[in-house]
């Protein structure tokens, strides 16, 4: 048995985006039960100069599809960040999941030493596949999923750590 | 070239704990410049029923040393969660880093199919090494580092995403 680059990347994006979608379910149930309304939650932030709940989901989507595209040497589908409602956020997650489901294991595996370039506004970062995964993509992706969770928690939505880790729980026997 | 279980686990804990220590530096500088005092920050939470900044650091430490110990089939050093000051939080991170530095690559690599059991109060979760890494250890560890960051940000400490990803940035050419 050997470690597969696919196994430590694509399924992590998939599982955690699934959990992110389940946060939306709990937020909706909480809104119906008298908690903050969905418009309030969509725009909620931890502090004024941090990104909103909606933006955290867009950034988690970008991290997942951008990471998967780089590992598979493909173009990520463009998604123009126009979401404002929970229905549109669900659709954004679903479109991201559809792209992830299209990624072939054989296009990712073996890419641990492949050069990955990340063009930022003021410079280009160059990584190996392993470095990009561990030093950029997973921390950045999980940052946005965690911050989305934290924003809902700070608004009183009843989420627990096992909602965050749910896919991992299902994985385990 | 093949993917190494060591490379996708131990250095992630090490780099992100280093970044966590740098959040403490920025929080101290901000306190000196008139921001919230260190006692306030140590006890700060996003909402009453979430863990404090101090507790997030203890939990990040537990996730890192517990994960490393399971991958290397060792006992993690016990750390009794008595920290209350920034100096003690720094020491906690340093002790965790010392344990991580003692983990040998050859004790981790090849463990992707090894069974890892996680005993919880009410049940035992069973994973392969890969499943434990991707479905539990990394998401859980990065959850606590991100939440520590979020608590400081919500208190006005001037941190940015590149503080969170700093080690990844240094990795890249």
UniProtKB/TrEMBL annotation, chains A, B:
Coiled coil: none annotated. InterPro entries: DinB/YfiT-like (IPR034660), DUF1993 (IPR018531). Gene3D superfamilies: dinb family like domain. It comes from the Bacteria. This is DUF1993 domain-containing protein. It comes from Caulobacter ginsengisoli.
């Amino acid at each position: 048995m050997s470690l597969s680059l696919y196994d430590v990347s694509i399924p992590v994006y998939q599982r955690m985006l699934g959990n992110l979608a389940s946060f939306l379910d709990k937020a909706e149930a909480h809104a119906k039960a008298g908690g903050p309304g969905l418009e309030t939650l969509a725009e909620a932030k931890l502090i004024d100069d941090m990104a909103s709940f909606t933006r955290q989901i867009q950034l988690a989507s970008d991290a997942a599809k951008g990471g998967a595209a780089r590992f598979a040497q493909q173009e990520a589908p463009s998604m123009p960040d126009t979401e404002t409602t929970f229905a549109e956020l669900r659709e954004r997650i679903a479109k991201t999941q559809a792209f992830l489901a299209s990624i072939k294991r054989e296009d990712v595996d073996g890419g641990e030493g492949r050069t990955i370039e990340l063009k930022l506004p003021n410079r280009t970062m160059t990584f190996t596949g392993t470095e990009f995964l561990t030093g950029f993509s997973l921390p950045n992706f999980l940052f946005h999923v965690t911050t989305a969770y934290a924003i809902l928690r700070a608004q009183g939505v009843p989420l627990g750590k096992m909602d965050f880790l749910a896919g991992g729980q299902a994985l385990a026997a």
